[in-house]
Amino acid sequence: QKEVEQDPGPLSVPEGAIVSLNCTYSNSAFQYFMWYRQYSRKGPELLMYTYSSGNKEDGRFTAQVDKSSKYISLFIRDSQPSDSATYLCASPEAYGSSNTGKLIFGQGTTLQVKP
Amino acid sequence: EAGVAQSPRYKIIEKRQSVAFWCNPISGHATLYWYQQILGQGPKLLIQFQNNGVVDDSQLPKDRFSAERLKGVDSTLKIQPAKLEDSAVYLCASSQAATVQYFGPGTRLTVT
Please, what's the b/e burial string for B64-101 (b: 16 or more CB within 10 A of its CB; e: otherwise)? Predict the structure, then answer.
């Protein structure tokens, strides 16, 4: 079992739709959760990160972590064609209360927002 | 603030040849990472440096891959000899703390 799992998609939605991207993880020691956006032929760009459970909002983006079910979500409101990219969830490898810095990534979900 | 710089952006080599990639991290970032991203997969850590010391190289195929970080700033990653399965994007990232990492644009390697 991979430590972080993500449906690769592709996911295609019309412009203006609400997008829900999801990941599950297996290591209960994970504490920080990141979402990276990666455009074609570019490096990953940090979108948001959260610590432990709860929600975090930044403009049209909301990150949600449910540690009880080991479930991570990213919601995009009023999606735009410029949101078309691959979205990667990640968490720093963790042992007990400390993390090593090594990011464990999901496979990435490819999103296409059609005008 | 300048981001993480990498060069070259693209490289095509034949199997059994050697290749080297260069990374310049964000100024002041003590931690530097090299990741390998195979098409359709998430990045996988190859090696992590703290200043010029290696923190984690457990996933680095040491029979063919090597990396160094001279003076705790720039880093090079070398593959010798290359195999077909080394075709991937090689990403460099840097961070101040062991949490938020900033990635460069990557070097896309094709081994034929």
Answer: ebbbebeeebebebebeebeeebbbbbbbbbbeebeeb
- pLDDT-derived band at A86 (thresholds 50, 70, 90) equals very high
Contact A103 B45 (CB under 8 A): yes
Name the DSSP class of B81. Answer: S
Whether A99 has its CB under 8 Å from any CB of chain B: the answer is yes
Distance from CA of B43 to the nearest CA of A (A): 6
Question: Distance (Å, rounded) from C-alpha A22 to C-alpha A63?
Answer: 10
Q: What is residue B1's predicted lDDT score, i.e. its pLDDT?
A: 64
pLDDT of B72 strictly over 90? no
